[in-house]
Amino acid sequence: MRASYLLLLAASIEATLKSAIDSTNGCRFTALAEPTDTVETLAARYGMTPSEFRSLQPANITLPGAPLVCIPQGCPVNCTLDYTLQTGETCDSVAALFNLSPSRRLRLNPSLDCGSTSSSDSHQLCLRGSIDGTFIGGPISKPQVQVSITSTCLNTVTLSSKQTCVDLSQNTSMPITRLASWNKGIDCWNLRQGQELCINATIATITTTATNTSSTGFSPVAVIPHPPPLPTPFQTTTQFVGEQ
């Protein structure tokens, strides 16, 4: 009885897969879909708009429900600018500083696990590149904004040449997201020659002090700023940084 059931189940699965394969017979590339996948979720997964993803599918594919779908061509990414994620940074927190949307970030980094900071730490995040001749990422035209340096800044640099936040991060050994937090309004694609930027600042930490109290007492909380160590030896508060 059990053997007959398993044979019937195997035959049913085989028939379903054959039907799915036949449905996508005209597709160059296919992928398995989850039962709950919709056009929107699949489009986001492959860095496309819902209409673009729908245009890839034959008329007989229904979503949600189809076990197999057509996907865009798996062309290799020709990356022209990348960045090594630092501890505590996420893919999208860095990508946003370069005006890279989550869908475009996904297209440039299809195999990068961006689900958590620990899984992406020390991995290369592509910020600009091309796929099959289509360019993704790079500077965009937008009004120039005055950068606001944090009031807790300890050291600044004056740039000797035009560069990006990736260059500044490499030259100062500081994470990009930290540099951006100290320089509000920074344009990571367009750091101008002669521009002054903060590269080190006081980071406030909260320390709690435990005391013996009565039922009506309380434990005080002290806020104590602790300046972090400089990433490299700085002899003056201002220096010139150029491209490597």
UniProtKB/TrEMBL annotation:
Q: Which UniProt keywords apply?
A: Chitin-binding, Signal, Virulence
A GO molecular-function descriptor: chitin binding
Top-level taxon of origin: Eukaryota
* UniProt domain LysM: residue ranges: 155-199
A Pfam family annotated for this UniProt entry: LysM
Looking up InterPro entries in the UniProt record yields: LysM, LysM1-like, LysM_dom_sf
| Coiled-coil stretches noted in the UniProt entry, renumbered to this chain | none
The transmembrane segments are: none
Listed SUPFAM superfamilies: LysM domain (SSF54106)
How far does the signal peptide extend, from start to end residue? 1-15
Name the PANTHER family on file: AM15, PEPTIDOGLYCAN-BINDING LYSIN DOMAIN
Q: What is this protein called?
A: LysM domain-containing protein
Cite the source lineage: Eukaryota, Fungi, Fungi incertae sedis, Chytridiomycota, Chytridiomycota incertae sedis
